[in-house]
């Protein structure tokens, strides 16, 4: 007697040819970081001067480290509230109000995260549905597009230009919008260009955002590294606070990269959605880092100011140095990067960076890895010592001369 079809044993699955076939398509197609590739090329060489790392060369101030050590000695090793220590959220709210004229309720509008990167990931996961278009001014930090794609969204690059100081223009934004546009990601001061947006620059952008009912993720991790007056937060523009998820952290301005301390601020309903994802994936940011971050906000603003002044001196050194070499260099007014043009050498950015590393011992990141508008440029971080920067400029100058001579 033949059994019914549904009673037959299931056919065994055919084994996949390689382990990569078990991976989800999004993970399988994800490209490795273009920045990391140049770190790998430079590893093992002791003669390398690295201008590729987006990391302060300063050590976290002693009193911040001491606060963490004291907390450990006192046995503070437990979980905190999922949203973060209440006193840290209160300090973040006070800091943002005093520095950038944006106010948030610490009880339900501020979320402490594991670095700004987690905050960006949480925001996109909370907002993006398959097929949503996410607008991203480029050149930009390399994380935004891959995370968008992993969530099923469609990254839409908007090219910005050196002639416009890499500012986002309202007409460019308007031209990129379709019925599927949902989120605009901003990063000013900019990684990699160092470009900034003033309050006046934001006003026409805000009108487009409101007209097309967009939500904004504003990555303001470099807010304190502004050299042309105070940073203007997009959330401070009338009508934009509740449309904006403000992302920032302690890595850059407070020299706390390894602590992985960040935060997101925004409308309570948006933060609540992000908090649910955070609860299931992270639980809470480490208490030791939260204690250190609280100390940085309470007593570390003086050291922050001194570090910023040092970066400003190095910024001027690098801009003058590249111009003296004969490379066009937009003057950045934020972050700690310069983005000189290497197009005049006849080399594309990837070839220039590879040859500069191999022939001159200077590691920098080719501009093409940062998206539209990056080709023909080189990202160089000046978060390293003046003697190292001076030597790097001498090596780059000699390399450019050798390229011109053929």
Structure description:
α3 (62-73) crosses α10 and α5 packs across α9. This protein is globular. Helices cover 41% and strands 13% of the residues. It is an alpha/beta fold. It has helices spanning 25-29, 34-42, 62-73, 86-100, 115-127, 144-150, 170-176, 199-211, 268-281, 287-299, 301-325, 349-360, 386-405, and strands at residues 49-50, 110-114, 133-138, 154-159, 181-187, 215-219, 244-249, 261-265, 337-338, 362-363, 365-366, 378-381. The strands form three sheets. A seven-stranded mixed sheet has the order 2-8-7-6-5-3-4, sandwiched between helices. It has 13 helices and twelve strands. α6 links the parallel β3 (133-138) and β4.
Summary of the model, kept short:
41% of the residues lie in helices and 13% in strands. It has helices at residues 25-29, 34-42, 62-73, 86-100, 115-127, 144-150, 170-176, 199-211, 268-281, 287-299, 301-325, 349-360, 386-405, and strands spanning 49-50, 110-114, 133-138, 154-159, 181-187, 215-219, 244-249, 261-265, 337-338, 362-363, 365-366, 378-381.
């Amino acid at each position: 007697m033949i059994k019914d079809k549904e009673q037959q044993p299931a056919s065994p699955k055919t084994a996949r040819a390689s382990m990569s076939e078990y991976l989800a398509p999004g993970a399988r197609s994800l490209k490795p970081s273009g920045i990391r590739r140049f770190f790998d090329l430079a590893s093992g060489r002791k003669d390398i001067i690295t201008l590729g790392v987006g990391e302060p060369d300063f050590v976290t101030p002693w009193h911040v480290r001491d606060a963490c050590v004291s907390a450990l000695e006192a046995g503070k090793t437990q979980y905190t509230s999922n949203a973060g220590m209440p006193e840290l959220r209160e300090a973040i709210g006070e800091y943002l109000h005093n520095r950038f004229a944006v106010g948030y309720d610490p009880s339900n509008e501020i979320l402490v995260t594991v670095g700004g990167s987690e905050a960006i990931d949480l925001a996109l996961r909370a907002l993006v549905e398959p097929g949503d278009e996410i607008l991203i001014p480029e050149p930009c930090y390399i994380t935004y597009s891959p995370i968008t794609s992993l969530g099923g969204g469609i990254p839409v690059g908007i090219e910005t230009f050196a002639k416009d100081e890499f500012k986002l223009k309202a007409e460019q934004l308007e031209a990129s919008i379709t019925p599927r546009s949902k989120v605009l990601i901003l990063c000013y001061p900019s990684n990699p260009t160092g470009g900034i947006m003033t309050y006046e620059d934001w006003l026409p952008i805000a009108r487009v955002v409101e007209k097309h009912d967009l939500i904004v993720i504003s990555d303001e991790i470099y807010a304190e590294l502004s050299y042309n007056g105070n940073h203007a937060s997009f959330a401070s523009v009338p009508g934009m606070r509740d449309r904006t998820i403000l992302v920032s952290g302690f890595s850059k301005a407070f020299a706390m990269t390894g602590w992985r301390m960040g935060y997101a601020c925004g409308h309570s309903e948006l933060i609540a959605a992000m908090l649910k994802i955070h609860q299931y994936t992270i639980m809470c940011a480490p208490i030791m880092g939260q204690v250190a971050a609280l100390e940085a906000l309470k007593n570390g603003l003086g050291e922050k100011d001194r570090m910023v002044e040092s970066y400003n001196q190095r910024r001027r050194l690098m801009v003058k140095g590249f111009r003296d070499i004969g490379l066009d260099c937009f003057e950045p007014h934020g972050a700690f990067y310069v983005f000189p043009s290497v197009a005049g050498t006849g080399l594309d950015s990837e070839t220039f960076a590879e040859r500069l590393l191999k022939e001159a011992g200077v590691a920098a990141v080719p501009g093409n890895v940062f998206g539209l508008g990056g080709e023909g440029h080189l990202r160089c971080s000046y978060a390293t010592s003046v003697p190292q920067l001076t030597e790097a400029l001498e090596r780059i100058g000699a390399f450019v001369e050798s390229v011109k001579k053929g």
